[in-house]
Amino acid sequence: MRKRHTPKDRLITVALHVALAAGLFFAAFPIYWMLSSSFKSNTEIFALPPTVLPKAFTLEAYAAILGDPVKLRFFFNSYFVAGAVTVLTVLIALLAAYGFSRFNFRGKGSLNTLIISTQTIPPITLLIPFFGLVVSYGIFDTYVALILTYLVFTLPYAILLMTGYLNTLPRDLDEAVAVDGGTSWTALWRVIVPISLPGIVATSVYTFLLCWNEFLFALTLTKSTSMRTVPIGIQLLMGQHAFEWNQMMAMSVLGSLPLLIIYLVAQRFFLAGMTAGSVK
Amino acid sequence: MTRQKRSHHRLKRAVAPYLYLSPSLLIIGLLMLLPMVTVIGYSFQNSAVLRRDPSFAGLKHYQAIFADPVFWASLWHTLYFTCMSVVFHMTIGMVFALMLNSDRINPTLRNILRVLYILPWLFTAVIIAVIWRLLLEPNGVVNSVLMQMGIIGSKVEWFSSPATALHAVTFANIWAGYPLFMVSLLAGLQGIPRDFYEAADIDGAKAYQKLIFITIPQLMPIIISISLLDFIWTMQVFPLIWITTGGGPIYSTEVLSTYTYKLAFSSYNLSQASASAVVILLISLGLTLLYIRCQKAR
């Protein structure tokens, strides 16, 4: 046991707490500033000296965003695309993960390596051929273009995450189905899926997050304002009204809400996804 | 079971995994591997994408890129941006993880701080870019505080002066990315057996000795694999730079991704952009092979 009451020991504890406070300031101040600016009027944002708390608290920026159908459409597009990709990814990844986790087959090792390495393919490298493909198939500026391209980036992570989860489930469970004469397909849906919900949730959360954050493909493969997603919407807002900082901050707050809520409600699942590629 | 039935069953077992994997392999093959081959093809064509019957260009586009001083400047900026980011992500992540893991802080405080320290991770690159633009505006809060403290004499245009722009975007990226290290190292710290430290205590080891001889060697595999992943991902950063500086002023924050994007979608030189994209792919591939070797070694 450590001795707690020497003066030197106390000094270390105090220093540690000072450092923790400094770390907190570093981590949280920019976010606090975004939040507080979103409740200020545009003139107050650049007031000198800066006001830490909004002096004249106002919801005008939020009203401007939520009252504008163009901006609401950005949110709808983001939710729709991210939702569709999440459902597709989880289904397809579940099947692949089941194959990896429950069967031994020729080429398993190299396929696994292939999937790990696709995580690191630079998006910019795929952007140019995707652009060529999307234009030549006439799906430029559509949901289909975004959904198909996002699927490629979410799938490898989702397969690795789901495989990792299925590997933790005992094999006896589905082997029991085989003994009773059932096929592996029945075992998957009757036995594996119901007990894999935590893995499915973690995978969904991470997939949703990847789509919600995507910028490069949304920027290049869509054109009309009605097809744009939230990240592009924020950029457009910046170009159009260079000085409407309070609206930009309000839109950023609204654009961060889904991830913040998921994080606060399902921290465990969130972290499982975020560290999927790295700690195994 | 009859012999026939059993062999039928065995056949099913043999085919099943490929069936389960087929949708994924189809998507990865058609939408990832095929485009990679396509982009390599484009880089050897004249007027790729834009013309129906492009002519063969040989290595022309690669030569054009390697002769372009902006390409070399972008490569250098990418390297600076990436190395600084990874080093500071690791340092800050490690310091925060060690602090949170200390038994000198109260468990409730620890849990609250852990949630708050992860915050930068929850924000999209575009939003991070917008936040830092607001903070670093010439009339913004950072300048006003620094001036009051007497650190700077006049307003600094952080993102629009060539002297500071690259450092400013790097700083914003450092802020945005350390939580990956922090979370991974925190998990790693909790996995180090207590006996190691107890044995060291019996031998009278000092705190810094325990750090150097137990903690860091135990965390090494995590440090190496996260550094490689972080390096690969940071090298590909696009939106943060695109929104804060757009690669400017006068190319001072141009990185490989913005350089390639502009070639493709501002100059519509898709062939040369493809050549540049292939160069980025090759660098990533080299690092990926290293990463896979590290993963397998574990």
UniProtKB/TrEMBL annotation, chain A:
Keyword Transport among UniProt keywords: yes
Cellular localization per UniProt: Cell membrane
Domain ABC transmembrane type-1: 75-266
Main subcellular location of this protein, as a coarse class: membrane
Protein name: Binding-protein-dependent transport systems inner membrane component
Entry's Gene Ontology BP terms: transmembrane transport
UniProt entry tagged with the keyword Cell cycle: no
PANTHER family xref list: INNER MEMBRANE ABC TRANSPORTER PERMEASE PROTEIN YCJP, MALTOSE TRANSPORT SYSTEM PERMEASE-RELATED
Family to which this protein belongs: Belongs to the binding-protein-dependent transport system permease family.
Transmembrane segments: 12-33, 79-100, 121-140, 146-166, 187-209, 248-266
UniProt membrane topology term: Multi-pass membrane protein
Cellular-component GO terms for this entry: plasma membrane
Superkingdom of origin organism: Bacteria
InterPro entries the record matches: BP-dep_ABC_trans_perm (IPR050901), MetI-like (IPR000515), MetI-like_sf (IPR035906), Na/ntran_symport (IPR000175)
Keywords: Cell membrane, Membrane, Transmembrane, Transmembrane helix, Transport
Automatic annotation (TrEMBL), chain B:
Record carries keyword Transport: yes
Chief subcellular location: membrane
TM spans (from-to): 20-44, 79-100, 112-135, 165-190, 211-233, 273-292
UniProt keyword terms in alphabetical order: Cell membrane, Membrane, Transmembrane, Transmembrane helix, Transport
Topology in membrane: Multi-pass membrane protein
Subcellular location: Cell membrane
Domain ABC transmembrane type-1 as annotated: residue spans: 75-291
Pfam families from the UniProt entry: BPD_transp_1 (PF00528)
InterPro entries assigned to the protein according to its UniProt record, in alphabetical order: ABC_transporter_permease (IPR051393), MetI-like (IPR000515), MetI-like_sf (IPR035906)
Annotated Gene3D superfamilies: MetI-like
PROSITE patterns, per the entry: ABC_TM1
PANTHER family tied to this protein: ABC TRANSPORTER PERMEASE PROTEIN (PTHR30193), INNER MEMBRANE ABC TRANSPORTER PERMEASE PROTEIN YCJO (PTHR30193:SF37)
Family: Belongs to the binding-protein-dependent transport system permease family.
Descriptive protein name: Sugar ABC transporter permease
